[in-house]
Design a protein that fits this description.
It is a single chain. The chain is of the alpha+beta class. It contains twelve helices and twelve strands. Strands 2-1-5-4-3 form a five-stranded antiparallel β-sheet. It has a five-stranded mixed β-sheet with strand order 7-9-10-12-11. A two-stranded antiparallel ribbon has the order 6-8. β4 and β5 form a beta hairpin. It is rod-shaped and about 165 Å long.
């Protein structure tokens, strides 16, 4: 049988085969074209995402730093920073790339924090802390930093990623709060100290007024005429009490201003003796003042010094035997006046000398209803004026307390001799 051929002698089968080959070729090209189109679309989407994420990182308010993992100096090296890094530190991207984040550290950067960060990264752990760094212009700032390790097949090697948040304002507010709390605690302590001091200062005048009132009551009950001495005591102690209250109400004067105020030494000593005149009279104790050398003025305020010496004299009268004597002596020694008070009592034991200037310490010979020697307040007043107060441990019998006060800056000129 003769095969079927076309006029040109070609076989229909060959023609069909050519048609099939052409169709297959066209199909393969379309498939490749579709795959290529899909690949290009994927790349286009990835590029759009990359641009989006880059824009997103650029808009983040926190600074982002990417470095390599070479912790030893001069590493790690900065590979990427976002715009917030420049706004925070003052370093541009060009200035930071290739440098180490150590360029941000300075004298106040805590080595404990950087060492802990290094140790955590060496162990492959994330780390978070607060640290003080320095901007490009040298200004200090506080930041909260979190560092983690980024490991991705898209990267040629592992990277460290640090996110840093500026907390300078928060730290400033925390410091302000701590300062305010410290100021409040200090003011509270000063207020308590002032109230305690007021209680100590008022106790003496009130005690003397109570004694004078008791003496007056005894005179009235006995039908005796009112003693002018007792009435004078009332007036004197009321004046002292008013002076104490006024001094507590007045604001504390600067030290130089207080030292410039002068108090006549003789007036101070006579006023101090007048404070204890009533209890001394009741016990038949003699009071004496001796001025050795010229008259002068001592630094301080009259009310405070009167209260301080009144406490010393009150103790001296209280411990002296009936019919004894208490003597005040004033002697100038260089730029100071030494005022000593001597009594004929049992004196100070070793324990008394060690604790006499403690608030509310009553002494070995105190009565159960006593309120303390009051020498702590005395020393507080004297030392505030640049003076000293001490117990003469070698004096016997009795006790001798010495107060050294600087002379006033305003001394009166000597009177011309006639």
């Amino acid at each position: 049988m003769k095969p079927i051929t076309d006029e040109d002698g070609s076989s229909p089968v060959d023609a069909l085969a050519q048609i099939l080959d052409q169709a297959l070729e066209n199909t393969a090209q379309e498939s490749i074209r579709q795959r290529a189109t899909a690949a290009l679309e994927g790349i286009r989407k990835q590029e759009q995402e990359r641009v989006f994420y880059a824009e997103l990182v650029g808009r983040v308010r926190d600074a982002i730093i990417v470095t390599d993992t070479h912790l030893d100096a001069p590493g790690p090296h900065i590979r990427f920073v976002n715009p917030a890094f420049t706004r925070l530190t003052g370093y541009s991207s060009a200035e930071a790339l290739g440098k180490s984040p150590r360029i941000l550290q300075g004298p106040q950067t805590r080595k404990e924090s950087t060492s802990a960060l290094r140790h955590a990264l060496q162990e492959g752990r994330s780390f978070q802390c607060e640290v003080e760094n320095y901007r490009a212009d040298g200004e200090r700032y506080w930041l909260e930093i979190g560092v983690s390790i980024m490991d991705s097949p898209l990267l040629p090697e592992k990277m460290f990623v640090a996110v840093e948040r500026d907390i300078t304002h928060r730290k400033f507010m925390e410091d302000e709060l701590r300062t305010a709390k410290a100021r409040e605690e200090r003011d509270r302590a000063l207020t308590k100290q002032r109230l305690d001091s007021a209680a100590l200062r008022l106790r003496g005048p009130v005690h003397q007024l109570t004694g004078a009132f008791e003496l007056l009551s005894e005179s009235v009950q006995a039908g005796e005429p009112t003693d002018e001495l007792v009435m004078g005591m009332f007036a004197e102690h009321l004046a002292i009490l008013e002076e104490c209250i006024q001094s507590m109400e007045e604001p504390e004067a600067p030290e130089q201003e207080r030292e410039s105020r002068g108090v006549h030494l003789s007036e101070l000593c006579s006023g101090s003796l007048a404070r204890v005149q009533h209890p001394a009279l009741l016990r038949g104790i003699g009071l004496q003042f001796e001025q050795v050398g010229s008259e002068g003025r001592v630094a301080g305020r009259y009310g405070e010094l009167l209260d301080a010496f009144g406490r010393i004299l009150d103790n001296a009268v209280r411990v002296s035997p009936v019919g004894g004597r208490v003597t005040m002596t004033a002697v100038q020694s260089g730029a100071c006046f030494e005022i000593s008070t001597v009594d004929e009592g049992p004196g100070f034991s070793l324990q008394d000398r060690q604790r006499a200037f403690e608030d509310f310490y009553q002494g070995e010979h105190a009565s159960a209803e006593g309120h303390g020697l009051g020498l702590g307040r005395c020393r507080e007043v004297v030392e505030a004026l640049g003076g000293e107060v001490w117990i003469d441990s070698e004096h016997s019998p009795g006790a001798r307390i010495v107060v050294a006060l600087p002379t006033s800056l305003h001394q009166e000129p000597p009177q011309p001799t006639l």
